[in-house]
Specification:
This protein has 186 residues and is an alpha+beta fold. It has one domain. 32% of the residues lie in helices and 28% in strands. The chain has four helices and eight strands; from the N terminus they run βαββββαβαββα. The protein has an eight-stranded antiparallel β-sheet, with helices on one face. The longest helix has 21 residues. The chain is globular, with a radius of gyration of 15 Å. The chain starts with 5 loop residues before the first strand and ends with a helix.
Length: 186
């Protein structure tokens, strides 16, 4: 994919109040939990189905949000992306890493689903939301799906509306843990 801007969402099983995530994200900054520069935390919990809580980074953001009426963690690459062939897998890996870190925090009681991943490319120039753009994203997601769900037949579906950025869902086998998916991505 040519777009530097890629988002990957891992869906949560249950919703957690935004105010419970704020100290967790602040701790990630303070303890340098991530291998990228984390700068600040913003609370948008008052916005209905909005961005929720945002961990703002230099090259990325993490959102715990409830768009589509479904809670989840979004990793959003803004700049300094890896080479095009690695971008999609990198975004999904980082979303899974964030989900694993949140699952490991016993104070939250969060669990994430591994049978569905939403991917968006909010870059209408390098990733147009047309049939050609979807075909390119679908091919990359299918290849990634084979790594994540070996032995299964992952499905890629178009997501969003014509007004939304290029979006697709990768659906795979259930019963896999976030840690297992991370291990499969290396």
């Amino acid at each position: 994919m040519q777009s530097n801007r890629i988002q990957a969402k891992i869906y949560a099983d249950v919703s957690v109040p935004c105010e419970r995530l704020i100290p967790v994200f602040h701790r990630w900054i303070r303890e340098r939990v991530l291998d990228e520069l984390a700068i600040d935390v913003a609370d948008y919990g008052h916005v209905h189905e909005g961005p929720g809580v945002v961990l703002i980074g230099h090259a990325y953001d993490y959102f715990y949000e409830e768009s589509e009426g479904r809670p989840g963690l979004v990793y959003a690459r803004k700049r300094d992306a890896p080479p095009p062939a690695d971008r999609l897998a990198d975004a999904v890996r980082r979303a899974l890493l964030g989900a694993r870190l949140l699952e490991d925090d016993a104070s939250l009681g969060l669990r994430f689903r591994t049978d569905e991943i939403l991917v968006r490319a909010p870059d209408r120039i390098r990733a147009p939301a047309d049939d050609a753009g979807f075909a390119e994203l679908s091919a990359e997601l299918t290849a990634l799906g084979k790594k994540l769900y070996p032995g299964a037949s992952p499905v890629v579906e178009r997501a969003g509306t014509a007004r939304d950025p290029l979006s697709a869902r990768l659906k795979g086998a259930s019963g896999t843990s976030v840690k297992d998916l991370l291990a499969r991505l290396g």
